[in-house]
Structure formats: structure tokens, C-alpha cells
Fold these 2 entries.
Entry 1:
Amino acid sequence: MKTVLITGGSRGIGKCIAENLAKEGFNVVLNYNKSEKEAKQIKKELKEQGIKIEICKADVSKRDEVKKLVKFTLDKFKNIDVLINNAGIAKLQMFNDITDVDWQEMLNTNLNSVFYTTQEVLPNMIHNKNGCIVNISSIWGMVGASCEVAYSVSKAGINGMTKALAKELGLSNIRVNAIAPGVIDTQMNNSLDKVIKEEIKNDTPLNKIGKPIDIYRCVKWLIEDEFTTGQIISPNGGYVI
Ligand code: NAP
């Protein structure tokens, strides 16, 4: 069975992807950072259903912690077939209010983490001439979001990395794709007020906010696919066309 390493699996989209892949029988390593209680709860609930999942704490914005996370996964399962770079943070603020610390934190967490995990996982994938990397980006990396410049930059960076790396890794049979979700109902959007959420819904042709399961379905398809690489796939209800 294939082994999946997913970053930021303790909540929201990552949790949904990790739980569902574990239920499908994949060997899953779920990474978390701050939400230890939530990660342990996921493991416990799955165990009660007879399903195994490994959890591993690591702050993926730090190279040394990513090294430990990848070593943990390889020690457990020998190979990594699928890397899902999902961990991310968001912050609403005017461009001129962004401090150097804010900027670095955003880029370290959302973009540099993808650089670190991918570099650490690649020797194993290249050796196996097999791999699937899925980067969770955002529509804001495609079209930009007002008051979310740092976030938009981090996701645009992911999109660029996805396309360039896909070209470099194709001959090693490693596919690199990004999923750029529209607005999805998770804690990340708790700070959006009701009126804004309603406006987004009304501006969405399918007239709804997305759910984590919508992103899981896309991930599952990308894992099974054999002819898609370098693509930015955007499940967004038609909000961005
Ligand atoms: P969420 O509910 O806030 O969950 C974020 C996850 O990222 C948590 O599991 C968190 O783990 C993890 N994380 C954050 N910093 C981390 C770090 N330094 N190291 C390891 N893990 C870290 O957000 P979400 O909505 O599920 O977002 C998941 C991904 O989808 C993000 O990349 C986000 O940008 C992207 N996305 C979301 C939306 C949306 O509307 N929700 C839309 C487009 C794209 P801990 O709590 O354990 O620290």
C-alpha cells in the first residue's frame, strides 16, 4: 500500500484528507504542530474503527524539524509515495501593516516549508522513480487577495514551484501538482464575518462555500492519475473562472 506524508493534518482540510486516505488503506503519516490534542484524538478515533494512522509533531517552517518528520516516515514505512504539502497559515492585514516578522512567518510556513519537505522527500522518490507531490495552494495565489498580499505571494510561489519542479522531475516519474481551493469552510476562515461569507457564496456560480471533502476528492484523483503534472487545479465552485 502507498505511503502518504501530509503536513498540517490536525485540522480542517488536512485532517479530512488524512482521515479519508487512512480509511482507504493508505499508510498515512499525519503531521501537526500546535494541535497535539486534536492529532491524538484523530488517531484514537481511527483506532476505535480499526484504522491505523501515524502522527508526528513538527513545525514545517523549520528545516531541522522537517528532516525529523521525513526520517520518522521513512523509518516507519521505508518509502514515501505521496507528499501532500497542506500546512498553512493566513492573516488579514493591510499591506503597509505587514511587519518583517509577519512576512517571514508567512513565507516560512506556507512556502519555505514546501521547499524543505520536497527536498527532504525527493531522494527517496527519485531512487524509486515514483512519486506524487500535491501542494495545497489557493485561488489567491492565482488572482491575488486584497489585505492578504503576503498569503497571496506565498501561494503564487507554490504555483511557480509546482510548474518548474514538474518539468524537472517528469523523467523521474514524479508528478507535481497544486490544488488551489476557493473558500473552504474551516477554522482558517473563522475571522471572515458572516456578511463577507454570504457575499462570497452569492458570487460563486455553484452558490456555496466549499468543504474539506471537496479537496480530498481532488487529492485522491491526483494520487490515482498517471498523466497530470505541473497543473494548478482549482476546486472553487466557479468563483474564479
Ligand atoms: P486550518 O484549519 O487553519 O488548518 C491549518 C493546518 O496547518 C493545521 O493543521 C495546522 O496545524 C497546520 N499548520 C500551520 N502551521 C504549521 C506549521 N508551522 N507546521 C506544521 N503544521 C502547521 O486551515 P485549512 O483551511 O485546513 O488550510 C489548509 C491549507 O489549505 C492551507 O495551506 C491553506 O492555505 C489552504 N487553503 C485553505 C482555504 C480555505 O478557505 N480554508 C482556501 C484555499 C487554500 P497545528 O494546528 O497543529 O499547528
Note: The beta strands are 3-6, 27-32, 54-57, 82-85, 131-136, 174-179, 232-233.
Entry 2:
Amino acid sequence: MKKNMNRRSFIATGTKAGISAGLMAAGFPAFAGNNRIAFQPIGYTQQPLPYAYNALEPAIDGTTMNIHYTKHAAGYTKNLADACLAEKVDTSVTSLEQLLRGISKYSAKMRNNGGGHYNHEFFWQCMQPSSSEPGGTLLQSIQRSFGSLEAMKNQFTDAGKNRFGSGWAWLIMTPDRSLAIGSTPNQDNPLMDISDIKGTPLLALDVWEHAYYLNYQNRRADYINNWWKLVNWNFVQQNCNNA
Ligand code: MN3
């Protein structure tokens, strides 16, 4: 009898562990230490930053990351939830990406905060403390579309530098499956039906002043040049694979 109880409680524990592992997989990007093993679709909740606030120093200082994540990004997430309630979006049915693809049907609050939330969740994963280099099929695609990695970086840097006011620079895969670079104003992104550039995001850079002003003041170009040392090319490759 005791043996049965033990077996039953073991099964119960095992099942519970299985469920929580499933929830982890659904809600969190899967990490093995610093090595991201699978990119999960971005949901409606803010996920833990995959590194410490100061882990990206000196390129991005810890205070900037702390304020950016806990104030700016958290605010978009909260305001998105408010907008979903007000505009009766069932977030268990409509994925965030679906919402963004049809964003023209919703309010400006939904557009600004849905984009703001998605863009930051995506942006954190575009960076890592230690640098890497693109390779394999990603590098081949870059070379095919831009001639060289250097040419792609220059074009992307220009897109970020030349975005007037606040916005984002993007490397995307277009519907015809070539790579392209562009920028979006405010918190718009290439998933949105109202966007001038459309495609699957592969890499994103936040060029709002809140992303760099404490350390770089008006020197946006310096911020961008240093940011290249942080790019997580494995993440870009995965986005390419999943596109
Ligand atoms: Mn930002």
C-alpha cells in the first residue's frame, strides 16, 4: 500500500513537473545557461531579461538597461494589456503577431504599445554579452542580398542613424525570401499592415534616445557602432530559419 502511495505521489509529482516544463516552454525563451537553444514566439507578457542589466557594458551601461527594461518596456507591456482589455482582444486566441499584422483595425494605443512590447521583447534577444559572428546559411543570405557582411552592416547602420526622431532599424526577410533593411518610426515594426517595410524581423535596433542617451547623449552613431559588438547572430540565424 505504501509502495502504491509512493508510486502515485511520484506520478503526481512527475506530471506536475511535466506541466510546469510545458508552461516554461510556452512562456519563456528556452535557455541553457547563456546559450539560447530555441526561440519561442513572443507573447503578451514581459519575459525575464536573458542577462544582467550590466552584462552589455561597456557598449550599453547597466543603468540604461535597467531603466529601459523596468520602465520603458514594462510600460508598453502594461499598456498593451490595458488596450487588449478595452478593445476586447482575447490574447489566448489572437497571437501577438496576428494582432500586429492586423493593427490597422485597432487604436493608436494598441499600435504604439503592441509594437513597443513586441519590439523590446525581440530587441533583448538580439543582444548578448559576448560577441559572435554570423556564419552558415545566414552569412550566405547576407552576401547574396547585400554583397558582403560589411555592406549589410553599413546599410543597417545608416538606417538607424538616418531615422528621424524615434524608431527602429530592421533587418528583415521579405515575402519573396530575400533580406532587406529599413527603419520604422515610433514603435511600428515590419509585421504591421500599416508599415512601409514588411517582412519577418531578423534583427532589430532601438534608436530611441532612451536606448542610449545616458551614455552617448547625441552620439547615436557611436551607440550603433558599439552595438554591433553585442549582436547575437545565433538568434538572427534562428529567425532566418523560422521565417
Ligand atoms: Mn526602447
Note: Strands lie at 30-32, 35-38, 167-173, 179-185, 200-206.
